Structure prediction request, 390 residues.
Amino acid sequence: MSDACALRARVASASRPGDHPMRTRFLLATPAALLVSALAAAAPAERPQVQEHSLPNGMKVLILEDHAAPVATFSVFYKVGSRNETTGNTGSAHLLEHLMFKGTKRFGKGQIMASLDRIGAQWNATTFYDYTNYYETVPVEKLDFVMGLEADRMRNSLILDEERELERIVVRNELERGENSPVRSLMHEVWGAAFKAHPYHHPVIGWSSEVEGVPTAKLRELYRTFYQPDNAVAVVVGDFQASEALAMVRKHFAKIPGGHRFPALYTVEPEQKGERRVTLRKAGDLKVVALAWKAPQAAHEDMAALKLLHLVLSGELNLGPFGDPLDPGISNRLYQALVEKELATYAGVDYVPMKDPGLFMVLALPRPEVEHGRVEKAVREQLERLKNEP
Prediction:
């Protein structure tokens, strides 16, 4: 992390007539060097044998046999997320994800979820900064069925105005839940303070007014542009022969035309030249401290060191967007330094490798009687230890 910049977030409770506001402060500071090169020399763990294939239309396919149980998971990742949105259309990728469950030419209105439930599938979807994905876990004999469903959803989704009206209410409720969460609100402020030009600045769920106002035609345009086989990666894991799974993928997806050109994102976040501090006030007594560093993109050579840094500090390797940042391990440096010493009720790391440079964030919840500065100092002491100790 030789080019890293640090972000420090402090949350202080205060009192005034009628409420108990929470004050949240963030500081972006210039370079903080965490010397983790020694960690990068650790021996890599053995990896499962993943097969990689490409269809003639440009779709990538990853296959992993796992015979532990007679089930299979099929997932399609589209390389489109909030990173691909512009001002005025934030939250569109996430709202589109909701509409992708509302029906296709083959599966009529309301039939996608009903069909999946009938075969006993566990299913969901996720929108992130860099991608959107859909997945189903099913009895292995239903794998062919869900592949057919996803292929139909890729090109034949019904994106209807009346469904948009209903789903924007659902998303509005999600927005309100996030706004009522001190930690989620804090994290949005951190990302907004850290990125001024790059679209990582705005939250994945978008700004409320833009989610409310985006026209259905704009969502259809987003769908037609990015939901293409040559912008997708299919992942198949389960109790099957890899050759059979690949044949299924080819049967359902190879006939969809490729050869598309996708809009390129050319915005590069300008170099940060000084500290940035933000204060967030919310009702309640919860204190939050967050420190974050600008972290290189996922393809950077320092990624192995960052993964190990995550493990050393938090005791876990939650390197995807599906985990809750408030889900720490116990046998780790942050827990020992903050929770065991009764400075905080929680201490952990929120870090996901990104397509472009992102953030490596430490989060802590100070105990009510503990000042923010004591927790911040304890976190920094642990980071300093990494410069001098293995």
